[in-house]
Amino acid sequence: MERPDDSRASVLRFATELVAWVATPWALxxxxxxxxxxxxxxxxxxxxxxxxxxxxxxxxxxxxxAVTILLVLTQLAAAVAAAWVVWPVWAAVAVxxxxxxxxxxxxxxxxxxxxxxEAPADARRRPLRS
Length: 130
Prior knowledge:
Layout: H1 7-29, H2 33-49, E1 50-51, E2 61-62, H3 65-86, H4 89-115
Parallel strand pairs: 1-2
Helix pairs in contact: 1-2, 1-3, 1-4, 3-4
């Protein structure tokens, strides 16, 4: 099965990720700077390290499509929840609409990710050097 063209979905997904990267540490900083930093590590680091082969050009640690979907859902949930905590209602509504649009446009990619075969054991860990 061929990976679907998701250029529109990519733009919406990236915009939602940016919101999550900004709003989540902002919301958590009121409670703990450690949690704020940890949220950035989780929201940026995990999707950078773990990806499904064929979904990204560079795969550091290969994971099944379900893990990639879960990482995107985590970003969406973080963006919406944090926006409602730290931003005015109009901005939180805008983020909620953005996340909903992202969910809709992600569906073809998620169908592809769900159907993607699991990576062979030797492809799960690739050296960082080319």
